[in-house]
From TrEMBL:
Stored PANTHER family: PILUS ASSEMBLY CHAPERONE, SLR1668 PROTEIN
InterPro entries: Ig-like_fold, PapD-like_sf, Periplasmic_pilus_chap
Organism, as annotated: Deinococcus depolymerans
Protein name: Molecular chaperone
Gene3D superfamilies with a match to the protein in the record: Immunoglobulins (2.60.40.10)
Signal peptide (residue range): 1-28
Lineage: superkingdom: Bacteria
Record's keyword terms, sorted: Signal
Lineage summary: Bacteria, Thermotogati, Deinococcota, Deinococci, Deinococcales
């Protein structure tokens, strides 16, 4: 006999409800960092730090690792490294408390900026990692939502600088924006807004590392006319504007 329509939809409803519950629990924890970007000038110091905050009431446990960070064909690549050390590598963050996380450079820097990611991963600890068991068609499914963070770490001498070039082409469905950094330091695109004619697209913040390329598709802008204008806040915290001609 054919099962009722409500039975066929029971499993996804259970999963959806569980995910909503977990998201609410995760949001109630409230973690943050200050600063969120770590910058190190090796001519002045070989270490820097960030402070992790717990604005919730429940203690949580975290593991901290560092990875060398590269961008290959527009994709982030993280690799094991001994060039950067972190302390502590594991800690319990009490409710309402804070924890200083320090990183130190072990490699002698050159003219090219060194880039790393500080990986902070939540570990099981009491009730700090929201968990639930959902029974779907007789199968127990355990869902958890640990909180993970990835903070950029930049090590650059004062002489390092980005050298950006821009190119854009109209393609079906949008405009392809090509960014290339031939410099020795990253460039940051914070609060990027791409405009063409009367249309605009907001792009989440990102960085283009020295020697890297990145391609963005700006959907919908093929319907407008005229040049492409980029407005953003750069790595130095200054407002920047770039105009790119389009055929």
């Amino acid at each position: 006999m054919t099962a009722p329509h409500t039975d066929r939809c029971w499993t996804p409803r259970l999963l959806c409800a569980a995910l909503l519950w977990l998201a609410a629990q995760a949001g109630a924890q409230g973690f943050g960092f200050t600063p969120t970007v770590l910058t190190l000038d090796p001519t002045r110091t070989l270490s820097t730090q960030t402070t992790m905050l717990n604005t919730g009431r429940v203690a949580a446990k975290f593991r901290v690792e560092v990875r060398a960070w590269k961008v290959v064909n527009g994709a982030m690549v993280l690799q094991d490294t001994r060039d950067l050390v972190v302390n502590p590598t594991e800690f319990v963050l009490p409710g309402g408390g804070s924890q200083v996380v320090r990183v130190g450079l072990r490699k002698k820097p050159g003219a090219q900026e060194l880039t790393f990611r500080l990986i902070v991963q939540q570990q099981p600890y009491g009730q700090s990692v929201p968990q639930s068991v959902v029974n779907a068609d007789g199968i127990d499914i355990k869902l958890d939502m640990p909180t993970n963070y990835s903070l950029p770490v930049y090590v650059a001498p004062p002489s390092a600088a980005p050298r950006m070039t821009y190119d854009a082409q109209v393609v079906p469905g949008g405009v392809d924006l090509r960014l290339e950094n031939a410099g020795t330091r990253h460039e940051t695109f914070n609060a990027l807004i791409a405009r063409r004619g009367g249309l605009s697209v907001n792009v989440p913040s990102f960085a283009v590392l020295g020697g890297a390329r990145q391609v963005l598709q700006l959907e919908g802008l093929e319907q407008a006319a005229g040049p492409l204008t980029l407005s953003f806040v750069n790595a130095e915290g200054k407002a920047s504007n770039v105009t790119i001609p389009l055929p």
